[in-house]
Write a structure and sequence with these properties.
By secondary structure, the chain is of the alpha+beta class. Helices cover 21% and strands 22% of the residues. The longest helix is centred in the N-terminal third of the chain and has 22 residues.
Length: 747
């Protein structure tokens, strides 16, 4: 998934109209996003099998005994009767685990079963429990069966793939939870669970996004069926071409129309289900782009509509930055999201910006489909090589003569120029205007939105979009731009230390210790130079840790070559044992500590390093989902009173002397493009590329600058792209851009 990578693949509900997306940090708590915006739960790490169900969360024998009889009589070629009740597992995005809920089979088609949870309510006295937004009716599910059998299944089979049959015979969850054969059913039918998905928005209506659907391979493995899950919120206003439109400015009462929202979610999640089988482990940005492409392919996504029209597409408008603008069809402006967003690094601006990630990859995949056609998209779906290499392989197969990096540059310019070119102004400075138009889009970035450049640096394989301005912040016309200087950083900035000093550790009030706080997807290090004495030296320290057993670890590491390589130290309490599906990056660092341990002293033999100076590091690595083990020991890692042969290295009261890394990685390169747009349409749009030298610097004045931007347009924007071909660096690359001697925002 996307939001919780370790679980599944889902679609952000922010995608479609009126409150169509999700936002960024500073909006949460300031702006109540109406009913939440949809978010997808992207790449499916649950494929690794991490998703777990505790026995305490299983249905009781009494609960399943009547359903077991129905399961035993169900032919593998026949769905159970309408009205059959059954427990199915769901993902809880708040706890990171799975739980059971009771469902009733409400509709059956040729290729789908739709089961609706018996309880669709929100907790407590939530205003969404109004008898309309917390209800999914039989006519609604019958309609969705017709859409799936008549549109989604045949078209996605044609353009993408067909899933293998899964009839429940090999369900891994049955022993100890439900009777054998409990989940059996026709293997060619997709089990669709409609439930009130437990995410942040489930707990608080003020959370700005909600999970509209997900596909979890972990759930599939549990029940040995092809399963996808769809949220139950407000199908009345979010299905069909012309749902009722009842927007207000109140989060509780607003019922804005989002045409085809759940149809699009079905289409999106079904592509994820197919992609799991066709190309396991596909990079999130490709997987999500294909799923968003499926929404438009099936006619459920109005990608060409602007923020001023009913039914605008939320992923795209969030990425372009237009959600900041208030219109009759966007009554609650959303300050989160904007075009400063990595295409390839998912969640690069945090989970509250995820919808913009979708918009970035959606527009890119629309460009691919426009240029290269449906066969290209089919091959991209089925290509086993993932990420940029997989894209390049398909580009080469079709003899496009393009590198992925070249396409990234053209895409970055296209999203800024497409609308002006659609309006017929023409393009000056590039020979092929068609390269910067996509028939299904009508794209333009909202240059006034600070989210076009607000984070320091440029995103990897993404861009800052900086409208050139004077010292007072006023946008410059082309004729007013007299000089331009660019200087890109050749290396990234060092990561800040993210360990903390805990002044009052558990059971040690007033005795500070160094702390790596609990969190998902951590790779958190503190390191320093230490001198190891001759003789029989030893390292001692006191520690307490709560680490998900056999998945998350803490390591004590030594480097003798200034951090080029690291050795994890071993003693009687470290282990090399790990879950077979644990993260390979974590496994590569073993041995380490895992599980729960209260305060105690650890000792490591440093004889191998006697008489030398080395780097000593404490490293905490976790995967996505599930922090700690749920017992008395809180999740996290504490370290105190570090010493070598009794000589103090740290007493836990300060992080002075500790670093996060030895050196920062190099920046691969920058591409700087200038676009010019006439707000009145009285002059052609402009696109030109700034020649950046090997030191990532450029300086333009006089005639050379005038040849690039002319003097007619009244908006000139710089698109600063960080070229990062490895997909291994998620940091933003620092740069400095000056115009007329004025430092521009962004770098």
């Amino acid at each position: 998934m996307a939001l919780v990578v370790v679980l599944a693949a889902a679609l952000p509900a922010t995608a479609l109209a009126d409150g169509g997306d999700h936002g960024e940090g500073n909006a949460y708590g300031k702006h109540k996003i109406k009913n939440g915006d949809q978010i997808d739960v992207g790449n499916d790490a649950a494929a690794r099998g991490k998703l777990k169900v505790a026995k305490k969360d299983a249905p009781t024998p009494a609960q399943v005994q009547t359903m077991a009889a129905a399961a035993a009589t169900t032919s593998e070629l026949q769905s159970p009767p309408i009205g059959t009740q059954r427990f199915w597992p769901l993902v809880d995005f708040n706890s990171g685990g799975a739980y059971f809920a009771q469902f009733t089979l409400q509709s059956v088609g040729d290729k789908i079963e739709i089961w609706v949870a018996d309880n669709l309510n929100y907790p407590g006295a939530d205003c969404r429990n109004d008898g309309q937004r917390n209800v999914v009716t039989t006519p609604q599910t019958e309609y969705m069966v017709g859409e799936f059998d008549g549109n989604m299944y045949p078209l996605e089979s044609q353009y993408f793939s067909v899933p293998p049959s899964r009839d429940g015979a090999n369900a891994s969850l049955a022993p100890g939870f439900v009777p054998t054969g409990y989940f059996d059913g026709p293997g060619d039918k997709v089990v669709t669970l409609v439930a009130n998905i437990r995410d942040e928005n489930y707990l608080s209506i003020n959370f700005p996004s909600y999970v509209a659907g997900y596909h979890s391979s972990g759930i599939n493995t549990f029940v040995d069926r092809n399963v996808m899950t769809i949220d139950s919120f407000d199908w009345v206003h979010r299905t069909g071409a012309n749902p009722p439109n009842e927007p207000t400015t109140d989060v509780c009462t607003s019922k804005a129309a989002r045409p085809f929202s759940y149809e699009a979610t079905f289409a999106h999640e079904y592509q994820h289900l197919l992609e799991f089988w066709a190309s396991p482990g596909e990079s999130t940005w490709v997987n999500e782009g294909l799923s968003d492409f499926a929404m438009g392919l099936l006619g459920y996504s109005a990608t060409e509509k602007t923020i001023d029209e009913l039914g605008w597409e939320g992923h795209i408008q969030t990425f372009l930055g237009w959600r900041l603008k208030q219109t009759p069809f966007n009554q609650i402006p959303q300050p989160n999201g904007g075009p400063e967003n990595s295409l390839t690094a998912w969640d690069d601006q945090g989970s509250l910006e995820t919808v913009a990630d979708y918009g970035a990859t959606y527009t890119f995949h629309e460009l691919l489909a426009h240029r290269y056609g449906s066969s290209f998209m089919s091959d991209l779906h089925n290509e086993d090589v993932n990420g940029i290499p997989g894209l390049q392989k398909v580009l080469d197969k079709y003899l496009t003569g393009k590198s992925a990096q070249e396409l990234f540059h053209e895409w970055a310019a296209m999203v800024a120029l497409d609308r002006s070119l659609d309006n017929g102004v023409g393009l000056r400075g590039k020979p092929r205007q068609a390269d910067y138009q996509v028939e299904s889009l009508h794209s333009a970035v909202y240059w006034e939105n600070p989210q076009a450049y607000s984070s320091a640096g440029s995103p990897p394989n993404g861009s800052d979009y900086v409208a050139l301005r004077d010292g007072a912040g006023a946008f410059l016309t082309a004729g007013q731009v007299k000089s331009l200087e660019f200087k890109g950083g050749t290396t990234h900035l060092l990561l800040p230390v993210t360990w903390q000093v805990d002044a009052n550790p558990p059971s040690r009030t007033g005795n500070p210790a160094l702390l790596s706080p609990a969190g998902d997807n951590l790779n958190r290090t503190i390191l320093r130079d230490v001198a190891v004495p001759a003789g029989a030296p030893s390292l001692t320290f006191e520690t307490r840790y709560g680490l998900e057993s056999l998945w998350d670890y803490a390591f004590v590491q030594v480097s003798t070559n200034n951090g080029q390589t690291w050795t994890s130290l071993a003693n009687g309490n470290t282990t090399t044992a790990h879950d077979p599906d644990a993260s390979p990056a974590i496994v590569a660092q073993l041995p380490g500590f895992t599980g729960d341990a209260d305060w105690h002293t650890e000792t490591f033999d440093l004889s191998a390093y006697a008489g030398t100076s080395v780097l000593l590091a404490f490293r905490n690595m976790t995967d996505t989902n599930t922090l700690g083990n749920g017992g008395a020991i809180a999740a996290g890692v504490w370290v105190d009173n570090i010493a070598i042969n009794g000589q103090s290295v740290s007493d836990g009261s300060s992080l002075d002397g500790w670093r996060s890394e030895v050196s920062a990685p190099a920046v691969h390169g920058f591409t700087v493009q200038l676009v010019g747009i006439s707000s009145t349409g009285s002059a052609p749009s402009i696109l030109s590329q700034v020649e950046v030298n090997g030191s990532f610097a450029a300086s333009l004045t006089g005639g050379k600058l005038r040849r690039l931007i002319g003097d007619e347009v009244d908006l000139v924007g710089a698109i600063v792209t960080y070229d990062e071909p490895t997909e291994g660096i998620t940091r933003y690359a620092p740069y400095e851009l000056k115009v007329n001697g004025v430092l521009q925002p962004g770098g």
